Amino acid sequence: MNAATYQSFADTWENRASIRTRPRRMLENDDKLIYPLSRQPLVLGQAFLRECPQQRDFVLVQTLYKFINDVVIFETEIVDQTARSIAKNRFGVAFPPACRYDAMTVVVDEDYHALVAMDFMQQTIALTGIAPIQLPTQIELSRAVPAALALAPPELRAPMELICVAIAENTVTHDVAAFARDDTVKASIKGLMADHLLDEGRHSGFWTRLVQIYWQRASEAERHCLAQILPVFIRHYLTNDLQNAFDFQLIDHLPVSPAVRLALKDEVSGLAFPINRHHPLVGNIVRFLRSSSLLDSACVQQAMVDYLC
Ligand SMILES: [Fe+2]
Ligand SMILES: [Fe+2]
């Protein structure tokens, strides 16, 4: 893949983009879950099941709010920003017009995903009567991308940003896919995830191709420098700090005794995945490093050795 052989997906976008093809989804008032139990382990813990199982739906609704809030931050503050500057040809790596047009479709898709997420937030508040607790103003990437950029020399900040966003877009795709397959959750929520997935499949390929184009024309010295920063980015990206802080705050809102609160916090603290090759998202990241051709370079193999099986 190079800039000359890049083929636009504009036709596919016209025919398949969720903003072009999907009707508004309405949250249904049925007995299905609003959020998968497997994605909020707090409600599966022994202390929770023993002390406050009746709080399950409150916890799941709040966790859905956080998920929605994270999606809005990701789409509007991370992906939108990079895609928009590529589209407007003011990004530090130059791309041909076909890439820039496709980048604009990504901007439109992502802002639409944020809108749909906000719609679901409003619908859920209306249906459940549960107001969101204070939601985070940052996601892991709000810290991980600046941390990576701070380590890059000025001329490599744009390529570093491109690789960070490409990793994130490839990871989120597989994450949303797991959600869309879950039969325990409400059909509208599954449908929402499936709509999103439809677009993200296109995006992950887009970002992978842009990284391939960049990597092919990068010098060995540039590749080496970027490779050294990758593990730092991944450590920040996979940290459990924000989820843990949110879970603690959520526990503080439960009507339970201080002793139970402590037991619940103890339980969620023990759930974090170690940040190594066994972390569930590392497989997605490594798959991206392969498909984008980064892992063909010895410097990337060496920098990523802790994450490779
Ligand atoms: Fe998206
Ligand atoms: Fe995307």
Explain the overall architecture:
The chain has 309 residues and is mostly helical. The chain has one domain (20-307): Orthogonal Bundle (Ribonucleotide Reductase, subunit A), CATH 1.10.620.20. It has 13 helices and no strands. It has helices at residues 10-16, 18-21, 46-51, 56-87, 97-128, 140-151, 157-180, 187-217, 220-237, 241-252, 258-269, 282-291, 298-303. One fe (ii) ion (FE2) is lined by residues 75, 110, 113, 196, 200.
CATH topology: Ribonucleotide Reductase, subunit A
Query: Which CATH class is shown?
Result: Mainly Alpha
Can you tell me the CATH superfamily? Ribonucleotide Reductase, subunit A
Q: Give a quick account of the main beta sheet: strands, pairing sense, barrel closure.
A: none
- Our count of domains comes out at 1
**Class computed from helices, strands and strand pairing:** mainly alpha
Which oligomerization state do the chains in this entry correspond to? single chain
Tell me, briefly, the overall form: globular
